Amino acid sequence: MAAAPTSALETLHRVFGYDAFRGDQAEIVEHVISGGDALVLMPTGGGKSLCYQIPALVRPGVGVVISPLIALMQDQVDALRNLGVRAGFLNSTQDFGERQRVEEAFVSGDLDVLYLAPERLSVESTVRLLDRGKIALFAIDEAHCVSQWGHDFRPDYLMLSSLHERWPDVPRIALTATATETTHKEISARLNLDGAKHFVASFDRPNIQYRIVGKASPQKQLLELLRTEHKGDAGIVYCLSRASVEKTADFLVQNGIPAVPYHAGLDKRVRAANQSRFLREDGLVVVATIAFGMGIDKPDVRFVAHLDLPKSVEGYYQETGRAGRDGLPSTAWLAYGLQDVVQQRKMIDSSEGDEAHRRRQAAHLNAMLALCETVECRRVQILNYFGQAGQPCGNCDTCLTPPEQWDGTIPAQKLLSTVVRLRNERRQSFGAGQLTDILLGKTTPKVTQFQHETLKVFGIGTELHESEWRAVVRQLLAQGLLAVQGDYGSLVLTEASAEVLSGSRKVMLRREPERPAGARTSRTR
Ligand code: ADP
Ligand code: ZN
């Protein structure tokens, strides 16, 4: 029953109104239409949906799409219906009547595409339902959710390994926009896709300019970016907490920038209204937690800004990938500071889950820190992270303004020996603020209280400014030469610190290029 390749192209023209396939789409579509399994790694905006929608239309039966994005199913189904495609979904948000109508349509073959939440498959009645209809294919969207190594693991996805056993003749296509080599292998193994054809697109998004700046006063830095480079543009600003989402949205509005908040704590209707305003209006900024954006298809997002450090490179790549789907120049901007590192290390230490889980989180954070502190091309770093090669791009901050490297061994030794002394003398550890005050020889109340002005190291670090010391701390943390412990962000040594203290290890640091006035505290020298 294999369809002629022309019918795929014909469907592309007739239903979707597009002239031609992009990239690997044609090959993927053909492969699935002829009954083959496929694993597709393609960046956001690459056009993954058509890879299963067209085979679903061309092959006899209903294309069953497994997706974790329950909140978006209605939108996805509406979009397909607008194109004349018979689409429906089954998830926990429906009442009995709705569900029954969709089930009947499925059994009678009056559907082209059925979206299914993964947890539905653990319900025996759903499995029986699927047995009663004709299935054209299984599409497993956001396939990285099956990977425990990945950043977005969903236990429900583990059940998807049984699809092949239960329906061996139905082709499966798994798709994801984010996969390191490790995740790629894990998806393949867990979903029994080792025999499938793997399509790996380039993860480069050449129109996105990557920039990572030191965090001084993030809201003002953001405002300056928007005023100087993104006037009237639509964009997304990511913050870690709901509180900072609200504050930042207020701040932008007060400064004349149309902005709305989006986070899981908002009333459902407000959230939906803000999201649809963002999709429909020009030049609206949405300030959001990472709850926002999965599956959102707005082509002209001109910038994605992060005011807090993402937890992984995968997350960063996925979030920044929402910029510039239309291929036009766009900015991915991240402000990152010492406090981010301290806070995230604390979160990992206090997180639930086993030791292996914490180790994975720490590895994700370390990779993110390495990206922040690199002196090399950001794009090359990102591509390498996803196991792909690249050339310095000329379109990221490190390419445009190469940061200097400097030999920070002596400052590192001064800082680490201060940590040693504080621990030895008081059996107590202190955070970056106190360390910096001691190195700079400041007699603050807290310095006096602990008699830190009597330490040998008091005032030995006046060659650097406070902000520079903070950058040293941050980079030592990133390089694993210093660690954070306890609830108060106390700094402690690591095994590797000894090599620096003994002089057997050199420490190279990154000097941030000068930012425009106001972006960071100025520096002499
Ligand atoms: P992904 O799921 O990979 O992020 P989508 O499937 O949402 O990407 O596609 C991104 C955008 O590109 C959508 O607006 C889609 O309609 C458009 N698109 C995809 N394939 C083509 C094509 N062959 N020709 C024109 N536009 C396309
Ligand atoms: Zn570059």
What does this structure look like?
With 525 residues, the chain is α/β, with parallel strands linked by helices. It is built from 21 helices and 17 strands. The strands form 4 sheets. The chain has a 7-stranded parallel β-sheet, with helices on both faces. It has a 6-stranded parallel β-sheet with strand order 8-13-12-9-11-10, sandwiched between helices. It has a two-stranded antiparallel ribbon with strand order 14-17. The longest helix has 19 residues, at 355-373. The radius of gyration is 26 Å and the shape is elongated. Adenosine-5'-diphosphate is lined by residues 18, 21-22, 25, 42, 44-50, 177, 297, 299, 325. One of its GO terms (biological process) is DNA recombination. Keywords: ATP-binding, DNA damage, DNA recombination, DNA repair, DNA-binding, Helicase, Hydrolase, Isomerase, Metal-binding, Nucleotide-binding, Zinc. Its EC number is 5.6.2.4.
List keywords for this structure.
EC 5.6.2.4; alpha/beta; disordered N terminus; binds zinc ion; 6-stranded parallel sheet; zinc; 42% helix; isomerase; 525 residues; binds adenosine-5'-diphosphate; P-loop_NTPase; elongated; 17 strands
In short:
By secondary structure, the protein is of the alpha/beta class.
Helix percentage:
40-55%
- What integer is the average pLDDT? 90
First-residue to last-residue Cα separation: 74 Å
Q: In terms of quaternary structure, what is this?
A: single chain
Small ligands present: adenosine-5'-diphosphate, zinc ion
| Alpha-beta classification | alpha/beta
Radius of gyration: 26 Å
Tally of helical runs: 21
The percentage of residues in β strands lies in 5-15%
Cofactor: Zn(2+); Mg(2+)
GO cellular component, one term: replisome
Protein name: DNA helicase RecQ
EC number: 5.6.2.4
